[in-house]
Every structure is written in structure tokens, then in C-alpha cells.
Request: fold
Amino acid sequence: MRTWIALVTATLLLLTVACTREVTGTARQDPNQPRTAVTEDGYGILVGDPEAAARIEVFTEPQCPHCATLQADYGREMASYISLGQLAVTYRPVTFLDQTGDHSARVSNAMFAAADAAPRAVAFQKFVEELWAHQQPGGTGPSDTEMADMAGQSGIPATGVQAVAGGGQAVDTLDMSDFNVELLTDINVYGVGTPTVYDLVDNEVLDIDDEDWLSKLISTI
Reply:
């Protein structure tokens, strides 16, 4: 009997020690993390695992303050779900606020230039957050050099950083905006506005005025 008690005690002690053991060293990124790619139609940017259980499209305008708020409030949370393979986000930029300049077009072009380098999805999501955090509604917007710096600091590969810095055409922004506005018109009967977040699984526009919209979306998968 005493032997049995001693064995149980020793086993419990071993389990306790194993569960509370301090792990030293530096965490490593999973090399198989989902990456970023331009969509087949050429006018969207898929961020994350295309087979993720939750998949959304985000229609966004680089000068839209509400789009900046969306990134500030939910960007990191989206990045977390993307890294876990639970969420895929397709960004669809539009440029209807480019009334007197090319602010929105240049930011949109920079996004596609960075995406062409197939960066890790979380790095691209960080880049998006940085772009919208530095928007200048009605102004000229960040320079190519400034956007390249943001790309590098976000973890975009060197080829993507160089492409952003060069400012060369990565997408026809006029065709891109027309195409994405047409999609937005088809899904949003209440009018064309940004940000609009569309659930590609249930085929419905999500209520992003509900502060728990993202966690509720993930809870259903």
C-alpha cells in the first residue's frame, strides 16, 4: 500500500514539475506560415491560408479614416487569427477619394508591389496597418520611400521593399478600383462605402459596428 502511495506521489510530482518547467530560448516562426498572394482576378490581395475556415473580403480606401480605425482596432487581432490559419483576408482597395491627386492609387500600388514578393501573411497585415496609420486624407500621402520603410519594418522581403521604393506600376489602379467598386456594389445594397467587410463563407456583409464582429466570426468556425 505504501509503495502504491509513493508511486502515485512520485508520478504527481513528476507531472507538476513537467507542467511548470521554465522553457528558455527564443521562439521561432513557423516556416509554413501562410503567405500573401494576388488573387486570380488580379485586383485583390489574399492574406492567409486560402482554405481557412473564416474568409473575408475587406473593401478599403487608403484615405478613408474609418478604414484606418478598422485597422487600428482589429489589425492585430486579424493578424493573430491569420497566423493560426483560422482566417484569410482578401484586401480589395478602391480609390474613389482620389479627387485631386493620386494618394490612394499610390498606396494601393504599393500594396500590390509588396504582395508580389509573397511575404508572410502576418508581415503583410502589419504593412497594411502601417499604411493606414500613416494616411493623410486629402493630402499627398506617404512617399514611396516612406512606404518602403514601412514595408521593411513590417517584414516584407527585400524584393518587395525595393519594388515599393521604386514606385513602378504593380497594378492598373484605375481598372483595380473599377473592378472592386463593381464587386462592392453587387454585395452592398445600401451603397458603396468603406470599409465594407464581406463574409465569403456565408455570403453576407458583416456588421462591423458590432465591436465583437471578428471574435463572433471566428467563434462560428
User: Anything to note?
Assistant: The longest helix spans residues 65-83. The chain has one domain: 33-219. Residues 1-29 have pLDDT under 50 and may be disordered. Strands lie at 36-38, 45-47, 54-60, 87-93, 196-199, 204-205.
